[in-house]
Each structure stands twice: as C-alpha cells, then as structure tokens.
Amino acid sequence: MKTVDVSSEDVEPPDWLPDLARVAELTLETISVSDYEVSILLCTDSRIAELNSTYRGISEPTDVLSFSQNEGDQIPMEGSGGLRGDVVISLEMVQANAEDLGISPTEEVVRIAVHGLLHLSGLEHGGVTLSDGGASEHPMLGLQEEIVDTLIKEQKG
User: How far apart are CA 145 and CA 157, in angstroms?
Assistant: First the structure.
C-alpha cells in the first residue's frame, strides 16, 4: 500500500505549498520504501510546541517532528509490513527558517518534509546539522540534500 495523507490543523495551507504527497512519494522511493502509510500534518508553532513538550520534554516549537508506528525499526524491507507514521510540520517555523536562510518557503518546507520522512524511516544524523557543514559530513543529510535538489528542480519544471 502507498498512502500519503496531507492535512492541516489551525492553519490554511499557503499558495506556495508544494505537493507534499509527491515530496513524500519521491523521498520514500529514493530510499527504497515501497510500502507506506504516512500522514503529514501542517500546524502552528503552538501546536508543535505542545507535541514537542509531550513527546520530547522540550517546551518550545520545532520545525518538524516524526512519529513512527514502527518505533525502533530501521528502513523496512520488502514484505516487512512497510513504513507507518506521521510527520508534523510547523508552517510558522518553516516561514521563519526560510527568512533566516534567505530561501523560499517552498524550498524550506520541502527540506523539512524530507528531513522528517528520513527520520520516520529510521535514519538519524546524530546532532550534526546543515549549518555545521553537515551535508557533506553525514550520510542522512547528504541524502536529504540530494532529494531536496531533485524535488526543487521538479517544482521549477
């Protein structure tokens, strides 16, 4: 089964929002996940801060959270029951990140969605970030940037 459900809570999806189902499909295809049921929730800073506090003990907003229903599993192999989980994205944080980085909100939401999906699949980056020069240093972040580049090129058509 291949299912991606995109919804929003207390935010109106902006007109710059790319097709996040397509972002999820390409990301999961790239890492050879062929069976998945994934939801992407777009929300406010206050909602993601609430979730961050409840599940991670951090009382502040973040840009993305991933909640796997396969907790502890690595990338599922063919026939293993597939990938199941949720990615939550704060659109307010995406906007702020995009302004801080001097990039479009579309590019930032693609990056954040890919990042969340890679975490959902079991990949980690051990605290290394892109601002640390981490893309060239860490396999997950390098893969993330390859996928983002492909998706951004696709968006520009």
Answer: 18
